[in-house]
Amino acid sequence: MRPYKNSNNSRRPAAVLHLLCVAAFFSIIVFAIQSSFFAGNRNSDLNKEEIHTLSEFQFSVQQCVANRGLGLTAHIVDHCKLTLKFPEGTNSTWYNAQFKIYEPLEYHYDVCDAILLWEQYRNMTTVLTREYLDARPDGWLDYAAKRIAQLGDDKCYNRTLCEEHLNLILPAKPPFRPRQFQTCAVVGNSGDLLKTEFGKEIDSHDAVIRDNEAPVNEKYAKHVGLKRDFRLVVRGAARNMVTILNGSTDEVLIIKSVTHRDFNAMIKSIPNPVYLFQGIVLRRGAKGTGMKSIELALSMCDIVDIYGFTVDPGYTEWTRYFSTPRKGHNPLQGRAYYQLLECLGVIRIHSPMRSQRKQDWSDVPSRQLISRAHAAALRLKRGSGLGQFGSCKVWGNVDPNSSGPISGSSDMSDVRKNSNYNKWEVMPFESLRKEARDHYSQMEGVSLYKMDGNKLDDLVCVRHSSRSEA
């Protein structure tokens, strides 16, 4: 006969174990809920802090537009969205044939995106270089082909051929650095310049950037100055450039979009440094070579002053200070966007209606507030922890023992071989102003390049040697 077993006693340990597992499971759930709750509260508090900072910045921008906009007003939608409005009765004479409408009297902007984009330009390289093409995955095969008008193909299947086209204007590494100059004047071509005498003021800047065929001579000296350091040029200006330069061998030419036969023929006959603008700007709030010049200036200069941009009320046609009027850019759209940029601390506007009043820019947001707003917008967009290289999609490195060739080709004339490239491409690091050297150290020897358009998260980043001569 089998001994009797108490079934209840035998099941008790299993039941207790089951209850313990259930209790532990619910404890984990409760802990997870509490953690999520407190994390949510922390994130909520963080967002509140960022939104408070951006709202403070928006209010400062609104006051700046009211004080400096010559009739423009800013209307806050939320901590990022802002609308600029022209006063009632503004004469909207510019007709958009594509959409069959006249220019609107209000424009909508995302200030968070705008400050992220333009503050990024302060740290960027805007000249096409060999290191960028080497680092970008499709740099030589695809991207380089887009910059060569005479290639006759949509890709560089023959890299040697593409290099021959680009060698004339392709430095190994950036010839210009962020913070290289303290003040820069970007001089447009508007006929409004003839209403002012900004010449001496323009020439007092560390560097002056001009556009296309703009003449620089004694005839216009009191209006536009005589200093000439950089010139952004498009294809149509290539044939006349030798005459326009008029013996100015130091002036650096920056080709706006693509290189082609006309440019290459011109380049071989002059000693001036010539480079190719790296970025392609899409969907910008204002168009034209002037906007490119501002991007170029911001990548090299602490303070960017603009002259000769038609930004005063009453604009009815596009005029140039050296030629007859002609149809041009949308006046209201451009005026609104340039005013926004001034109140974001990107540029400082000089115009006939501003020439007679004290220009102290105390009503423009301070650099401290701009930096705080930029950091807040960055955290809201990407979260924390990504640092200054959070937008780097592609990384490359430069061999510290290889400095790369000076721009040019083997068949250069003696004039070209003895050009002024060395002034920029073999510039000793120690000769840069302290702010530029400090910035180089802060960026850990990394050059930032945009890949395409207005996207923020699409940078190619190239790390250089930490040696001082890098």
Structure description:
GO terms for molecular function: sialyltransferase activity. Its main location: Golgi. InterPro entries: Glyco_trans_29, GT29-like_sf, SIA1/STLP5. One of its GO terms (biological process) is pollen tube growth. This is Sialyltransferase-like protein. This protein is an alpha/beta fold and 470 residues long. It has 15 helices and 18 strands. The strands form 5 sheets. A 7-stranded parallel β-sheet has the order 11-10-9-8-7-12-15, with helices on one face. A 4-stranded mixed β-sheet has the order 6-17-18-16. The chain has a 3-stranded antiparallel β-sheet with strand order 1-2-5. Helix 1 runs antiparallel to helix 12 and helix 2 packs across helix 12. The chain is globular and about 60 Å long. The N terminus is likely disordered.
Question: Which secondary-structure class do the elements indicate?
Answer: alpha/beta
Largest sheet: 7 strands, parallel
| Global mean pLDDT | 83
Helix content: 25-40%
Number of helices: 15
Low-confidence spans:
1-11, 24-43
Quick rundown:
The protein is an alpha/beta fold and 470 residues long. The chain is built from 15 helices and 18 strands.
Distinctive features:
single chain, 470 residues, alpha/beta, 7-stranded parallel beta sheet, 4-stranded mixed beta sheet, 18 strands, 16% strand, globular
